[in-house]
């Protein structure tokens, strides 16, 4: 017999979206339970995104999660675009009236929110199994799971938030025929590394090289994060450390500039794809973050989209379960999808402009170089990039 309890909002997934949603709801007196099939240690260690839009930073500060971010985050006022042997700076602050981005790893956000939620006495269940959602046609959907001790639980909710990622259960639980999904695969992947070496640049370098894209970013003043374009089916075993550094030197190198090398502590290959599912809601089941959409990492939008989703969702759920007003919940999917498609287009545009087509089509190459020259010589084009990259909408948490 399952243990049967009630809560206002059941949240599936303890990534940044689910955890932040729980935090935002608690600030307005709405109870939640978060369930996660991975361990706390895994959630706090998995390497994901690391670049925050200005609005994301403002939000985290506003809701009391900015202390470590302000102490350890690396604020950047722009990026570099490199092509045809030249490096050009895109100055976000000058182009957008002061906006910026901040390097602060997703893992650190997860640690910060877990600590805040547990200190507040929140219920976060790690290492659960057999998670399912049911009674979705009613106003009292049910969240079921088995905890790490083997005890079965059934929680009656007023709403359920699917923050459980692309491979989670919530999207698949929606009624057959409801969802429309569109996707785009890309004919390349990223080989990413973490290296214990100070960054060789003050801001990110996006390099279009004839032999493939490369990106130099960072995690801290002591840890660098770098990426190489590789074939989609590439085997990581074919990339010993010496080969990785050699190719990074080749694709990022410029006369008079030195790429520092150091011990590689992590390396992995990530496929590139775009995916959008709509609507992001069925009655009282709501999708947020990667459960509803995936973007290639070139535009640094994935984490920021997830945080924007749950900012909108928190206000909608507070209005729904605390005040009995469904208007914001009814508008949730359309509100989010406007931003999702803007970010999807920007991510596709950045990806298409900077990556080398595997067939080395000279027409595509000429278009890329033309676009890069335009972006780096036209204030209007540079402003478009700067506005989208730094965040064209603010995710400020509004009182309500």
How does this model look, in words?
36% of the residues lie in helices and 28% in strands. By secondary structure, it is an alpha/beta fold. The protein has a domain at 3-75 and 102-182 and 273-355: FAD/NAD(P)-binding domain, CATH 3.50.50.60. It has an 8-stranded mixed sheet with strand order 7-6-15-16-17-14-18-21. Helix 1 packs parallel to helix 6 (106-119) and helix 11 (362-377) crosses helix 12 (379-390). Residues 395-400 have low confidence and may be disordered.
Write the layout of secondary structure elements.
Elements: E1 3-6, E2 9-12, H1 16-27, E3 32-35, H2 40-45, E4 51-53, H3 54-62, H4 67-72, E5 74-76, E6 78-83, E7 86-91, H5 92-96, E8 101-103, H6 106-119, E9 123-125, E10 129-134, E11 142-146, E12 152-156, E13 159-162, H7 170-173, E14 180-195, E15 205-208, E16 214-220, E17 223-230, H8 241-252, E18 264-278, E19 281-282, E20 285-287, E21 293-294, H9 302-322, H10 327-354, H11 362-377, H12 379-390
Parallel strand pairs: 1-12, 2-3, 2-13, 3-9, 6-15, 13-20
Antiparallel strand pairs: 4-8, 5-8, 6-7, 10-11, 11-12, 14-17, 14-18, 15-16, 16-17, 18-21, 19-20
Helix pairs in contact: 1-6, 1-9, 9-10, 11-12
